[in-house]
Write a structure and sequence with these properties.
Ubiquitin-like (UB roll), DNA polymerase, domain 1, 5-stranded mixed β-sheet, 5 helices, globular, binds FE2/S2 (inorganic) cluster
């Protein structure tokens, strides 16, 4: 099958490759870019394990073809840490508040929460739960994930956690 040359920027670095028209973005990220922190749980748009940030929006990368991301700016879990190598506030939050068990959903959760906090730096618990509703976790019961995101928001804002919707 004829292949198409695609280029995109992932975590600030230019990336290119030859793909079939049917190649999913998640397979480009994992198999061509070699960034295997982006997971595949379902390949049917349900679980959110494959979530990346694409041009400033959360996207399930199994729902797009790689050719559709031509020229895009992507952020994956490998690009979340601070530039000095320290953990991002969300990574620190998940560590402090035990936001993971098996960890399979965690990269997608963190990348999704990153965009959530960009859009709403001080979300309520209800807003966090709504914000991550496209990401499934089969281990944690979500409470520790919510607490982890609250921890990150509070540490970033230097303020107290918000308890309820207002
Ligand atoms: S692998 Fe993409 S949503 Fe599950
Ligand atoms: S920590 Fe196991 S699926 Fe979320």
């Amino acid at each position: 099958m004829a292949k198409t040359h695609v280029t995109m920027t992932i975590n600030g670095k230019p990336m290119e490759g030859l793909v079939e028209p049917r190649t999913l973005l998640v397979h480009f990220i994992r198999d061509i870019a070699g960034l295997t922190g982006t997971h595949i749980g379902c390949e049917t748009s349900h679980c959110g394990a494959c979530t990346v940030d694409l041009n400033g929006q959360s996207v399930k990368s199994c729902t797009m073809f790689a050719v559709q991301a031509e020229g895009a700016e992507l952020l994956t879990i490998e690009g979340i840490a601070n530039s000095d190598g320290t953990l991002h506030a969300l990574q620190q939050g998940f560590r402090e508040m035990h936001g993971l068990q098996c960890g399979f959903c965690t990269p997608g959760m963190i990348v999704r929460a990153y965009r959530l906090l960009q859009e709403n730096p001080n979300p309520t618990e209800a807003e966090i739960r709504m914000g991550i509703s496209g990401n499934l976790c089969r281990c944690t019961g979500y409470q520790n994930i919510v607490s982890s995101i609250q921890h990150a928001a509070a540490s970033t804002n230097g303020g107290a956690m918000r308890e309820a919707a207002e």
